[in-house]
């Protein structure tokens, strides 16, 4: 390891003496960060996400979340209704009258 001084500037040769690699350098090629799958699991444990929707009484199926669009005191308020399409009340495949305000 030789230093040369030329016109007031100290220069160090490109090769430096060999040292034992540090632990950080030894782990350089290895994946030390959690995998995306592990990160996803960590986030899911911290942020459970939205609650499961209620099930309608008639069909026992998950309801859909809707928002009131009509102007008035409930505008913007959210609610759950049966997920089936509208139809005649006598049609068992049609939407039941289940309704629940979301909290």
Automatic annotation (TrEMBL):
Keywords: Metal-binding, Zinc, Zinc-finger. Pfam families: Zn_ribbon_GRF (PF06839). Signal peptide: none annotated. Residues 29-42 have a biased composition (Polar residues). The keyword Zinc applies. GO terms for molecular function: zinc ion binding. Residues 56-103 form the GRF-type domain. InterPro entries: Znf_GRF. Residues 1-46 are annotated as: Disordered. The keyword Zinc applies. This is GRF-type domain-containing protein. It comes from Micrurus spixii (Amazon coral snake).
């Amino acid at each position: 390891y030789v230093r040369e001084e030329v016109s007031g500037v100290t220069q160090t040769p490109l090769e430096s003496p060999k040292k034992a690699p540090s632990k950080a350098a030894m782990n350089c090629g290895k994946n030390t960060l959690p995998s995306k799958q592990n990160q996803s699991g960590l986030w899911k444990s911290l942020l459970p996400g939205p609650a499961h929707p209620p099930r309608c009484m008639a069909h026992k199926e998950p309801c859909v979340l809707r928002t009131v669009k009509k102007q008035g005191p409930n505008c913007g308020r959210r609610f759950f209704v049966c997920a089936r399409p509208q139809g005649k009340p006598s049609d068992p495949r049609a939407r039941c009258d289940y309704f629940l305000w979301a909290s």
